[in-house]
Design brief:
191 residues, Tetracycline Repressor, domain 2, transcription regulation, AcrR family transcriptional regulator, HTH-type_TetR-like_transc_reg
């Protein structure tokens, strides 16, 4: 066993591998993710990742879960910030756009249908997606308590679509984050 491997016996090898995968993802995108390269970056043997990830797909799914959890946490923090419910919903939209802009490859991997199927997300991703849906649902219901479920679902879908669209445009360099935030105001579905 190499010295570098033994330094991870305290139980943090999985985190170190995910950190290395995240660095690689940020630099070169999801196509560059491989167990061998992640092991090299983490300073462990090329077999070490197999203790935590059965194959490349398992690694990619773990990275996607990590980014989905971070995206959810950014939105949750925005919703639980100070301000009126409308201001907090707007802050959620900003958090969504900001995450996509700051972590474009991480954002992309979350929404890659080959990584996370919209119709059948993985067991690890499904609860995160559900939490995100419940958070948005709570925000919309708080702002519009008198509206029926069908209208609330449409408002939530409209808000998410607006956020996602400007997030993708911003992350790909087609608009600045400032323009993306202004776009969120221009298509405000909360009025």
């Amino acid at each position: 066993m190499s010295t570098s491997e033994s330094s991870y016996h305290h139980g943090h090898l999985a985190d170190a591998l995910l950190d290395a995968a995240d660095e690689l993802l940020a630099e070169r995108g999801a196509a560059a993710l491989s167990l061998r390269e992640v092991a090299r970056r983490a300073g462990v043997s090329h077999n070490a990742p197999y203790h935590h990830f059965a194959d490349r797909t398992a690694l990619v799914n773990a990275v996607a879960r990590r980014h989905m959890a971070r995206l959810l946490e950014a939105q949750r923090a925005a919703w639980h910030s100070n301000g009126t419910p409308r201001e907090r919903l707007r802050a959620m939209g900003e958090a969504y756009v900001r995450y996509a802009h700051e972590y474009p490859n991480g954002f992309d991997i979350v929404f890659d249908p080959e990584v996370c199927s919209p119709t059948s997300p993985s067991p690890g991703m499904a609860p995160l997606i559900r939490e995100n849906e419940l958070l948005l649902d709570e925000a919309i219901r708080t702002i519009f308590p008198e509206q029926n479920s069908e209208t609330l679902v449409a408002r939530a879908a409209g808000f998410w679509a607006a956020c996602h669209g400007v997030a993708v445009l911003s992350a790909s360099g087609h608009m600045s984050t400032e323009t993306a935030f202004a776009a969120l105001d221009a298509v405000d579905i909360t009025s």
